[in-house]
Specification:
The strands form 7 sheets. The chain has an 8-stranded mixed β-sheet with strand order 2-1-3-4-8-7-9-10, sandwiched between helices. The protein has a 4-stranded mixed β-sheet with strand order 13-16-15-14. The protein is 42% helix and 15% strand. A hairpin with a 5-residue loop joins β15 and β16. It is an alpha/beta fold. The chain contains 23 helices and 22 strands. The two termini are 35 Å apart.
Amino acid sequence: MHLFIATVESLMMPRVAKHLEYLGDLIARLERHVQLELVGEIDVTDPARIAHIVQDIGAKDVTLAGLAEHMERTDDSHAIDREWLERMSQLIARLRDLRFAYEEGTTGRGRSPMGILNATGCTSVWGSTYPFNPYPFPWANHLFQDSPSLAMGVFEGHMARMADGFAAIRKAELELSGSYAPAEHDTFFHQFDWRGFSDAEWDLCPPVVAVGGDGAMYDIGFQNLSRLMASGHPIKVLVVDTQVYSNTGGQACTSGFFGQVSDMAQFGDAIKGKQEPRKEIGLIGIAHRTSYVMQSTIAQPSHMIEGFIRGLKARRPALFNIYSSCQPEHGIGDDMSAHQAKLAVESRAYPIFRFDPDEGMTPEECLDLEGNPAPDQDWPTYQLRYLKHGQEATMEVPMTFADFAITEGRFRKHFRMAPPDTWNENMVPLAEFLDLEEDEREGLFPFVWSVDRKQQLTRLLVAKPMVESCEDRRHFWTMLRAMAGAGKEELSREDVADEVRREVVGRIASNLMQLATGETQGGVSLEALVGAPAEAATSAEAAPEAPGGGMAPWIDSPDCTTCDECVNLNGRIFAYDENRKAYIKDASAGPYRDLVKAAERCTAQVIHPGLPRDRSEKDVEKWIARAEKYN
């Protein structure tokens, strides 16, 4: 919540400051304009006439009003347009009120950067507890299910006020340009609403935000949320997804995982935890076709904050579904939220994604799976560390949903430790078991590798509900990949070999031509003829110039802080060496934008994206410009 609010304020504050400066200048110019119009009614081009009027006034003070009065007596002066003068005085007063609202307002703190409609639950009962209130702005709390509907009503009133302010500014601009025509413009301004705002005006609108947990949004309030998204109103919805009804004691929720043990989903002989697959509200949001949808976690702050920004800027509904640990109900330590969120993403329990309808017409254009590890595989892998004969050893194992589940109390009843003396050939690693057909699984016992308190390698047998939960999570991940078009453009080994061969031959031919034409001096080695491979670059000195004006990327690996940003962004391009230092494994294993984003997110600022050889990538010039300061 703090990060979301900070994101909103960081966007709004500079915009408002710039707008206030413009508003002050606009008021000054309009006041000057009215003064000049009024003074313009007095003809000062006849000196004899002015001298006669001054003599007639006598010893009294000469005022503008007195001068105008004597002018009217001695001349057929044009009467001032009363309607125009009344309209201008009201317009100036409205602009001054608008400036006051921005600077001070009724609270003395100026205009608020946002407003929240909060569903009753943890986010209101816990989040708004005095004096640690994270919501220092207009905030309302109503029935459990009502925050989206309340937000729609508040939005309409809020936008009417914003439209009134922008209309006053537009009228002043038209008046100053001499193009305001009441007969033409009054009808337009009478019908003017948020749909007619310019981009600059829309950016100045404080967002109306509906906040609630998974109970409020997934279940009892789902129909209200669906109506909000269907409406197309650009209201922002933040869902705190804990997978249980946390505020009322941890009852089962439709956002929970299959096999999860909680109140009303108990574990016993008849029922072994939750028996329903998880409801994917992200997919439901996508199905509305009207809304920006992001699913993210606190463990990927760059992904989350970037998604907040894009959703806030979109002139459409935005649904932010955020994985949130409930420590007592999940059975984890109070300091483990970010760690568990990271495991949830890596195990496919909670894939992160962004869906932006403004990106195109097809799902693969709109859906972005960036940030998920090993995006081309069912399961990422990790290094399990254990002691073998007193020495540290490692084993690379798949990170399945079950590997995540064993770290939380809500799933532990589905696992049983198998002592080493019980190990036998019928025990099969879970990832392999999941790939077997149903009839092939007969008589086999799936397990996951783990370590005991003494760091000794052990096997944990996996119960059927966990197997089914793994299948559910893999199925959802497969569906997301298919929607995003993953794998459609992957090259075969033969295609890759042909591409490399053509590149090498091209480099040799190019350098031989330079030799033949005398463009190079001194001896030339085979390495110089071929050119160093782009993926081998690890320092600035090792970054070769690539054909077509490209430059290979490189990493200052010794300075890497192992922040995981690059490998989470694209694990095919980036990898860790045996010392847990990042290096570029294959620069061609993803779009150039991934290299630039990795450089921007790198906490140690050691990634240098170079320049792309292929300039046909979408928006490539924009990415080259963003990469400039990192090369």
